Amino acid sequence: MSANLFINGKWSAGSGTRRGRVLNPATGETIGEIAFAETADLDAALAAAEQGFRSWSRVSAYERANILRLAANLTRERADAIAHAITREQGKPLSEALMEARGAGDHIDWYAEEGRRAYGRVIPARAPSTLQMVLPEPVGPVAAFSPWNFPIGQIVRKIAGALAAGCSIIAKAPEETPSCIIELVKCFEEAGVPAGALNLVFGVPAEISQHLIASSVIRKVSFTGSVPVGRHLGELSARHLKRTTMELGGHAPFIVCDDADPTAVSAIGVALKFRNAGQVCAAPTRFLVQDGVFDAFVESFVAGANKLNVGDGAAEGTQLGPLAHARRLDAMAGFVRDAVEAGGELRFGGKRIGNEGFFFEPTVLTNVPLSARIMNDEPFGPIAIVNRFSEVDDAIAESNRLPFGLAAFAFSRRVDRTDRLMRGIEAGMVSINHFGLAAPETPFGGIKESGHGSEGGSEGIQAYLTPKFVSQLNA
């Protein structure tokens, strides 16, 4: 795994000697290495993106869509291999990795068609013989930074969105999960994306972001990751007046009203909370359950957590894989310890599993006070908090208490309640009575400290376009 930088249409091992280790989180063993980009490599990528933008932006939307659809089909053909690479390097169960890999083609197809429908408009003029038009144009070369928790699902939106709009892109991918992303980029390469339009680098995140964002070549920055890093990159971008899309962390509430079925809803909650070992920005963390169904919900939720099959993501039947990093084990233990010391009740789990790999028990805490750290900081792991509420307005107030606003979930059979919840919850995405987030045709993004802008939906491609107003007097 040495030739893993893709710059100006060529694969290389980079100009330096620095390498990073790639681990299998199920065993903790080193399974490969990844080349780190040096300044010279980043400068080459910037030059390639600048030239690539000039050529790619002149390709018709129709032809760009044809190339992207071919890339989408290639990802579908190679989805099994990509999924195995995800599981090997990230740890999630193979069944989840397959869903992620197979869904990549749908995201590419969506953007391909949106690129063909990026319409402008004609504005009626006040004077005769005057034509007033708004023309959507690609914003320019993009620097994109994506996380390890959904290594394909996140970066494919950035690549497909930028290319569909006619932008070039330098994708800085996570060093923990390189193989699947390399295979994805090869699909775009073989589909006919020209040299320079798509570039891939790995390396020290702070070095790469500092260098790329400061460059006059880059016109837009897209980042998915934590709030602290997003805030830092936002400051860098603002300093250089770069447009940004920021999809940051969350602390999603999961509201269960007393007219909902606690057993059925708890099954949805277990599936959403422990998917990808809880390493999901939109995963529910604060389960807010109304008094009348609290005990039944907790009993059913704990039973569901207890039934999860924990193990190597590559093993048949695994439902909960390892955490991606050893440092996440210490973080989870710290959250649990702090919550119990603050007065919370540990109902299930709470410990590391074994000494090999990075496994942590699915964990359920109840009656956790607001002073506990986990009630205020995103755990990003397999820990669920279940607290009770009396009135729906109390649940809405708790949902909105934190500065985050990415996703929220709510369950009620009463239309008056669902309407209050839909309108009252402050979040970029609200899913009521089911899980309905992250489809290619729907916008994905948050508000407040969870970021701004959307990926997916018709909003997704607008992030890569800029309106040019033209007023023409025809003599």
- Alpha-carbon distance between the termini? 62 Å
Question: Based on CA inertia axes, which overall geometry fits?
Answer: globular
- What kind of sheet is the major sheet? 7 strands, mixed
Structural class determined from secondary elements: alpha/beta
Low-confidence stretches: none
Write the CATH fold name of the largest domain: Aldehyde Dehydrogenase, Chain A, domain 1
Name the strands of the widest sheet in spatial order.
14-15-16-13-12-18-19
CATH homologous superfamily descriptor of the largest domain: Aldehyde Dehydrogenase, Chain A, domain 1
Number of helices: 14
- CATH domain class of the largest domain: Alpha Beta
Mean pLDDT: 97
Total count of domains: 2
Quantity of strands, as a count: 22
Q: Label the CATH architecture of the largest domain.
A: 3-Layer(aba) Sandwich
Overview of the structural elements:
By secondary structure, the chain is of the alpha/beta class. The chain has two domains: 5-248 and 450-473, 3-Layer(aba) Sandwich (Aldehyde Dehydrogenase, Chain A, domain 1), CATH 3.40.605; 252-440, Aldehyde Dehydrogenase, Chain A, domain 2, CATH 3.40.309.10. The protein has 14 helices and 22 strands. The protein has helices spanning 39-56, 61-77, 79-90, 94-116, 151-165, 178-191, 205-214, 227-239, 262-274, 291-307, 326-341, 392-401, 415-424, 457-462, and strands at 5-7, 10-12, 19-24, 29-35, 121-123, 130-138, 142-145, 169-172, 198-201, 220-224, 243-247, 252-256, 284-290, 345-348, 363-366, 383-389, 404-405, 407-411, 429-432, 447-448, 451-452, 465-473. The strands form six sheets. Strands 14-15-16-13-12-18-19 form a seven-stranded mixed sheet, with helices on both faces. It has a six-stranded mixed sheet with strand order 9-8-7-10-11-21, with helices on both faces. Strand 3 and strand 4 (29-35) form a beta hairpin. The longest helix has 23 residues, at 94-116. The relative contact order is 0.14. The model has no long low-confidence stretch (mean pLDDT 97).
